[in-house]
Amino acid sequence: xxxxxxxxxxxxxxxxxxxxxxxxxxxxxxxxxxxxxxxxxxxxxxxxxxxxxxxxxxxxxxxxxxxxxxxxxxxxxxxxxxxxxxxxxxxxxxxxxxxxxxxxxxxxxxxxxxxxxxxxxxxxxxxxxxxxxxxxxxxxxxxxxxxxxxxxxxxxxxxxxxxxxxxxxxxxxxxxxxxxxxxxxxxxxxxxxxxxxxxxxxxxxxxxxxxxxxxxxxxxxxxxxxxxxxxxxxxxxxxxxxxxxxxxxxxxxxxxxxxxxxxxxxxxxxxxxxxxxxxxxxxxxxxxxxxx
Length: 292
Hints:
This protein has two domains: 12-96, no CATH class; 129-257, no CATH class. The termini are far apart. The protein is extended, with a radius of gyration of 36 Å. By secondary structure, it is mostly helical. 55% of the residues lie in helices and 5% in strands. Helix 1 runs antiparallel to helix 4 and helix 10 (213-225) packs antiparallel against helix 11 (227-248).
């Protein structure tokens, strides 16, 4: 009986697969249907077993491993397919490689350095604890964005002559490029890229804060001017709020999502009545009595 070259050396994962077919095969022993394997060596983990499955084929072919004539066994059809798949998987993993210890150590060192830098940043921001608390009252501004704003802008607003100069320095004001009475471009200037990025990120987060003035304003501008212009406009509003908060040392006062509706109450009412009348409704308005 010759050696069947389709036999592979099995370990933990291969043995578990072949249990379903009713046999076990060890690298140092012949296969025994439903029997126990008296292995001389310790079993490896499933990952190393799969990696080793492809490399052990050569040992079996050279006579150093177990020899099983699969053709004469009744469970050949299902078990042999599982063994072949494991052999291919082992060779693939062997080529691809597993995470090395040096890579794991590198990831650990990066995390440790990151935590050390966070502690150093927190120590540097201790004198600005009051300003950090003020900034975090603004919708969309968390601790990280507040730290970026303080690092890039500072807390002394007297260096800027006005809030318009501050907006121009940051780069969240519209451009003014006109010639011969013709307006050419309104692109925002470059300004401070890091602070501008932080403010736009805060604007995107504020657009998701329900029941706030910034969210209502964002969606009104988005409908008319588009998403990007609306985000820059909200970033400008956040910067104006920061300027007055730092200048006057006051907390943020949210106007609410109904503020813009109350400004144009009669105009909004007239438009809504006209829309209902165009749909065929007869509208009668009565003022709601205020409850004590």
